[in-house]
Every structure is written in C-alpha cells, then in structure tokens.
Task: structure prediction
Amino acid sequence: MASFYFTTPIYYVNDKPHIGHAYTSLATDVLARWKRLEGHDVFFLTGTDEHGQKVEKAAQDAGMDPQAFTDQVSQSFRLLAERMGFSHDDFIRTTEPRHKAACTALWEELVRRDEIYLGHYEGWYAVRDEAFYGPDELVERDGVKYAPSGAPVAWVKEPSYFFRLSKWQDWLLRYYEDNPGFIAPASRRNEVMSFVKSGLQDLSISRTSFTWGIPVPGDPAHVMYVWLDALTNYVTAAGYPDTGAERWKFWPADVHFVGKDIVRFHAIYWPAFLEAAGIAPPKRVFAHGWWTIEGQKMSKSLGNAIDPLALIEQYGLDPLRYFLLREVPFGNDGDFAKSALMSRNNGELADTLGNLANRTLSLIQRNCEGRLPAVAAGTEADAELLAGLIALPAAVAAHLEAQEFHLALEAIMAQARAANGYITLQAPWALKKTDLVRMGVVLRHLHSALRVFATVLQPFMPGTTAAMLDQLGVPQQARGLADLAVPLPEGTALPPPAPLFRKIEDAA
Result:
C-alpha cells in the first residue's frame, strides 16, 4: 500500500463559492477516491485562504471584522464540500494557529539560510490577483493598465522583505527538464518555462500597506505576502514544522490541482520556497482550464458565477459530478451549458447505463427468481464482452494517472455501449423460450458488466453507484477494484430493481 497526497487550492474567502471551485475539488476528490479504491493510503486536503488585502477590503465593505467575515465565508466553502460529497481528510484555514506556526517556521528557516533580505518594492500591483506584474505583461485601455488576468493594476511603493527567487532560476529550469510531468498540461508547462527563461526577479514577500495577515517574525510592521502564507498550507496540513509527524509521510504532495490562473505561484514560487528551505518540492502541479458561460470566464469579479448548490438542487448531485468531468478535457476551457448537462445525463447515464441496469436486473428478477445465475463458459461474443470488462479498470487507472477524467469516463461508456449491443444481440428475453441455460449465462455476463461499471464509477458518482451495487447484491466489503476478481456466489438474492437515473426534461 502506497501513500498519496492530493490537494485543491485553498479558496479565497472574499466571496461565496462558484462552480469553478466545485470543479477543482471534484477532480481532486475523484482521484483520491480512486486511489482508495485501489487500496492505497490517501490524504486529501482542501480549505480556505483567509488573509490579504482583498479579504480585508471585502470585510470592510461588509461592515465586519476580518476574522468574523472569514469565519462566515469559510463556512460556505465547507458547505459546498459537504453538498458536493467530497471525501477530504482535512479542511485547513490559514487563520488557524497551526498554520501561523508553520508559516513562521518556514520564514525563520528561509532567514536562517539567507534566502530573505529587507529592501523596498515599487511596481505594478493588482489587488485582485495579489500579484505584481512586469510592464511587458500589461495592456492599457482608456488610460487604465490591466494585468493578463484582466485585473486593473496600480503603481505601488513600499518597504518589503524579498525572497531570493532569481537565485533559483537555473535550478527551476533543471527541475522542469528533469521532471517533465511536474507541470501539466503541456501548454501550462511551456508557459511557465517561457516565463522563467525570460528572467526571474527577487520576489517581494511582505506588505506594510495593510495588517490582515501573518506578522513577519521579528518585524510586526510587515505581514507575510499572501501567496507565501497560502502556499504553506500544503505542508502545514502534513505536520510541518514537525517532520516526524504521522502525516509527514504523505509529503511531497502527489498532485496540486489548481486553476490555470494560479499556476505561476504553484510551479515557480512554491518549489523555489521549498527547495530553499530544504523541503522536497511537490511531484506535480496540474492547472485546469476555466469554465465559461456564454464565452466569458466565470468569476466572482465578473458577477456571472453559477451557484453549484442550485445546480445540485435542480439536476441532482451525481449527474452534475459526472457532467463536469465528462464534458471537457481537464486542462482545457469549456463552456457551461445546461442543455449539454441534460444531454449527457439523458443519453449516457439514463439511457446507456441506467436502462441497461434496469433491463438486466428486471430480467433476472422475473426469469431467475431474483437470484444470480451461475458463472459459465460461453461464446465468442461472451469472451469479447468479458475481455473489455477485464481491461477496463486498468484503462481507467491510466487515464486518471494522467488526469484525463473525460477519457476515463469515455472508456467506461464505450464498454457500456458494448454491453448494450450485447444484450440486444443475445436477446435474453427470447432465450427464455428456447434455452434457459444460455439465458442464465447471458444475464450473468451482463450482471458482471454492471458490477464492473458500478465499481469503477464509484469515485465519480458515489451515491448512485452505491445504490447500483446494492441492487447488484455486492456486499459493502466487496466494492474495491481487487474484489472484481472474486465472482459473487451463484444464487445470490438480488433486490427488486429501481431506476437509478432520472431523465432531465427541461434544461432551462
């Protein structure tokens, strides 16, 4: 049994969560669940990023103390995680004492290693992004300069502590070359490498223009730069600075899941901070694309965000979970359309999978006294179906290792379509009149197919697949991938089937 550590970004609490937050966490959840299904030891972390100028301003606008404000908004992210069915092992908040202690320890270690010095900074700063940008990165419209993210920038000057980021430029480029899978997808890797090759400047890592943050050790006039604070959460939760803690076995993280807008922080600053402090860098940073609506990026600042809780209420949790990872290659941008969600649900879940389950289980109920037929040798058509089923878990695993969620689901649906073709050609309803033994063989193979589909789909749709496995008579303790090698006993009593997926009639 191996150990795996998967993280979401910690979400910024200046407003309530939207579908983009749900999407990142869902991918993390599916991979964590899959690794548990394989029998591994998994640590899955999510949480909230609660310091910085944006949060301080949002709290002021709401007429609230920053801590009270973050308590309230952080709770909305906990609720999202609960309603989306996420299986996280820890929910971290950057206002927690354990995190302040970890940040302080990391800062002091960087000072001890002469990686931090005091100076002053002036440059173009975007409050919305909590980031500085070079003049060559900006565009100007109507006399206002904007960052690549679309955030307006202003010229600021203040005293600041600096991290010697420029010192780590060559090391980063070597690390990227030696670890080609460290940044994914390839488009993001190329973007990061190009940025680093263009030359890294030392990084401002403290602020004096606001107070809502973790004080710099020995100089409380400064608070830590929000990104140094935020990124440290990943080692905080693993027990840092206590590297003898039980959870430290999970470090380095196997995958940090992030949106493409924050890949620079995770793929440049974060590994440099860690290496400079003598801590192993993470193994992989995967930056997914943005969901758009009517061609525009969904975001809080644009005011066009979709509330995932409303979608769950309208369409159901598992159809939403399935759609988000099925519709768009993870890493690409995609446009959210409710008509597309309806099409995936009705065509693939209700018709292809749900109808197959209902037909098969109803035939067993009516023609086999509700008991599982025996395993038996069969025809070439049987062998072809079974070969596809045997190969399916490994195919799904390979796609998930590469974060190709849509291809994992397509592989499952391809086998489900093959099983539908099989039931049509074998026609077990007609075999009842001519060959009861053959009817039993066909139904047993179809039951086996459904068991495989339900097992490998558990990370994507845990609620529906649990109901499906119940209907298939699979015991709770026999739902891992390894259990597929052990057939259920002949004569296992199956409960009367019930529909697993409802069709969505209106996408409005």
User: Anything to note?
Assistant: Residues 337-485 form a domain with the Isoleucyl-tRNA Synthetase; Domain 1 fold (CATH 1.10.730.10). The two ends are 47 Å apart (CA to CA). The longest strand covers residues 116-126.
